[in-house]
Amino acid sequence: MLNHIRESIDYIKHRIGDFNPEIGIILGTGLGGLVNEIKIEHQLMYSNIPNFPISTLEFHSGKLIFGTLSGKKVVAMQGRLHFYEGYNMKQITFPVRVLKMLGIQTLFVSNASGALNPDFRKGDLMVIEDHINLQPDNPLIGTNFEEFGPRFPDMSAPYQKELIDKALSIAKEKNITCHKGVYVSVTGPNLETKAEYKFLRIIGADAVGMSTVPEVIVANHMGLPVFAISVLTDEGFPETLKAVSVEEIIKIAMEAEPKMTAVLKELILQL
């Protein structure tokens, strides 16, 4: 893996020159609009980067975007990878390791997820303060590379509290409905049954999705501060559960995306 990372980095650096990103951003399903706010300097297709996994979803474009946002040099992943696509956890988190080795100092993660907390509604935002990992694998299983981090990384505070507090304050100032809660990560790709939604709420989750946690584990392993935010695209309330399509989910995500962008832009500005 070390050689693969070095090959990816050599290729990227050859094409971006002396551009040194300080912030990494992972854009979730239907949330690629933030790219429109970036003053783009370089764009690299995943498919052209040696050893880089390729997103197989038609609504994930699969690009690394390098540019300036809120006065900071950023690199954004426009399109992420999921376990349900057939990738293993090391492949899913490979880009995070590459971004860290490129020099980013903070990782921002976004996703589209389903609301479990009955006080939340679709179209709202939720800042992630903690998570529950129900994925069947862990990206740290196998050989540990001390160059990256310890064999047994602490996960008592996987999301940076200072950034959480700032984001909630920003949302309040902008009159954006933004909650704080626990995100549970499952494999997908199917949505949950009524009984599963009920179970996930009982164990303490406020929102459910199919991503984010593997990347956050690896970021913490590498000592990389993380901020994560969800756009709530559907409501997993067993008593009133309705069928929902991925097209509806993407539509809600795209409608709510400007609110997420407003929070992230101001949060990055305040770093």
Automatic annotation (TrEMBL):
GO (cellular component) term, any one: cytoplasm
UniProt keyword list: Glycosyltransferase, Phosphoprotein, Transferase
One of the GO biological process terms: nucleoside metabolic process
Pfam families in the cross-refs: PNP_UDP_1
GO molecular function ontology, one term from the record: purine-nucleoside phosphorylase activity
Residue ranges of every copy of the Nucleoside phosphorylase domain listed in the record: 23-268
UniProt EC number: 2.4.2.1
Enzyme class, UniProt record, top EC level: transferase
Pathway it works in: Purine metabolism; purine nucleoside salvage
InterPro entries: Nucleoside_phosphorylase_d, Nucleoside_phosphorylase_sf, Pur_Nuc_Pase_Ino/Guo-sp, Purine_phosphorylase
Function: The purine nucleoside phosphorylases catalyze the phosphorolytic breakdown of the N-glycosidic bond in the beta-(deoxy)ribonucleoside molecules, with the formation of the corresponding free purine bases and pentose-1-phosphate.
Family: Belongs to the PNP/MTAP phosphorylase family.
Protein name: Purine nucleoside phosphorylase
Naturally occurring in which organism (per UniProt): Pedobacter cryophilus
